[in-house]
UniProtKB/TrEMBL annotation:
It comes from Raoultibacter timonensis. This is Peptidyl-prolyl cis-trans isomerase. The lineage of its organism: Bacteria, Bacillati, Actinomycetota, Coriobacteriia, Eggerthellales. Residues 5-84 form the PPIase FKBP-type domain. One of its GO terms (molecular function) is isomerase activity. Its EC number is 5.2.1.8. Also involved in hydrogenase metallocenter assembly, probably by participating in the nickel insertion step. This function in hydrogenase biosynthesis requires chaperone activity and the presence of the metal-binding domain, but not PPIase activity. It catalyses: [protein]-peptidylproline (omega=180) = [protein]-peptidylproline (omega=0). InterPro entries: PPIase_dom_sf, PPIase_FKBP_dom. It is found in: Cytoplasm.
């Protein structure tokens, strides 16, 4: 069984409740991450923790253990000039803000009215339960 601190090598497909695939390793290299490091969402990490190399599992990660519940309080209003590359930003388009610590976080412009943008700082998958089909294909360390 995998343990904390080991590097897991996984192939996976992530789907929403309606079957839409939002992420997958299909056609690319498997994902490698250190189990328990916080690199992946908690529910995904916990599922892999209980797997042996060669195992496959399907896990449903509730929104609160994935990207959190959708929070109306994370919708803000601000001038368009505060948005990076504002001239290229379209309503509904995802873009990234970078904070002072060089951490990137997603945002989406919901509306622009007289130069003031309504910006949603919720993660695009906030409020959604996520289903992962996971195969542990290797382990390092």
């Amino acid at each position: 069984m995998t343990s904390y601190g080991k590097t897991a090598v996984v192939e996976y497909v992530g789907r929403l409740d309606d079957g839409t695939v939002f992420d997958s390793t299909e056609g690319i290299e498997p994902l490698e991450f250190v189990v328990g490091s916080g690199t992946v969402i908690h529910g995904f990490d916990e599922a892999v923790l209980h797997m042996n190399v060669g195992d496959r599992t399907t896990v449903v990660v509730p929104a609160r253990e994935a990207y959190g519940e959708y929070d109306e309080g994370r919708i803000e209003h601000g001038p368009m000039y505060a948005i990076p590359n504002a001239k290229d930003t379209e309503v509904g388009k995802l873009f990234y803000f970078v904070d002072e610590g060089d951490m990137r976080f997603p945002a989406r412009v919901l509306e622009v009215n007289e130069g003031i943008a309504t910006i949603d700082f919720n993660h695009p998958l906030a409020g959604k339960d996520l289903t992962f089909d996971i195969a542990l294909v290797g382990e390092k360390g």
